[in-house]
Write a structure and sequence with these properties.
mainly alpha, globular
């Protein structure tokens, strides 16, 4: 059955909040971050701004890049920009970095699993892609590039910039890249929105948010 707009909006907000908390846990684990969070952490390190604020500002800046790409944001896109960094900072402020490598890895893996669950929840709301995913798909459409080329170029660039700025790259970066795709492959269909049979066909989407739930999800980030 189709769910009402309030139910979908609640699902969206819960998913984005949990996503931000997951990011905060991974930051506190201090074993490495994904490319966009490495970039945000690097900027935060250089500017003295909080990680959460930088995350929101980066999301807003990326959203501005949608204009020449003629991408159209949804409500989920706007709430993504406002919510993820804010909740990440809440988690960073409340959760200390554990003593010892094993507890740090336990915290990191908890964050990865929570992020995959959160991705499934908010993607399933079907209320618009995240700003970073929209950038990748927009470049792909405008330039005729495959999605994987756009994603590799963008995420490779922000990872390098983040590292140069002092962001945390480590084994966690590798583990995140290896685990997040398979985990989201499970969680996105699990929380997928049910649509009428006569609705337009489901289109593949990146994990950081999409208008419809993909049949074969690959990855995440907001």
């Amino acid at each position: 059955m189709n769910r009402t707009l309030p139910a979908r909006l609640l699902q969206l907000v819960v998913g984005l909040a949990l996503y931000g908390i997951a990011v905060g846990l991974m930051v506190r684990a201090a074993v490495g971050l994904d490319p966009w969070d490495t970039f945000a952490q690097g900027i935060a390190t250089k500017t003295g701004l909080s990680f959460g604020l930088v995350t929101n500002l980066v999301g807003a800046a990326v959203l501005l890049l949608w204009i020449p790409l003629r991408q159209r944001p949804g409500l989920g896109t706007v709430l993504n920009v406002l919510t993820v960094g804010t909740m990440a900072q809440v988690a960073i402020d409340l959760v200390p970095t554990p003593d010892g490598l094993l507890p740090r890895w336990a915290l990191f893996l908890t964050g990865v699993v929570l992020l995959a669950v959160a991705t499934g929840i908010y993607v399933g709301a079907g209320m618009g892609p995240g700003p970073r995913d929209g950038l990748m798909t927009g470049l792909s459409k405008r330039l005729g590039w495959p999605i994987w080329v756009s994603r590799t170029l963008i995420e490779g660039s922000v990872l390098l910039l983040g590292w140069l700025l002092g962001g945390n790259i480590g084994w966690g970066t590798v583990v995140f890249a290896a685990l997040i795709g398979p985990l989201c492959h499970v969680t996105i269909p699990l929380f997928a929105r049910v649509v009428p049979a006569r609705a337009v066909a489901v289109r593949p989407a990146e994990s950081d948010g999409s208008e419809t739930a993909p049949a074969s999800p690959t990855r995440t980030r907001s």
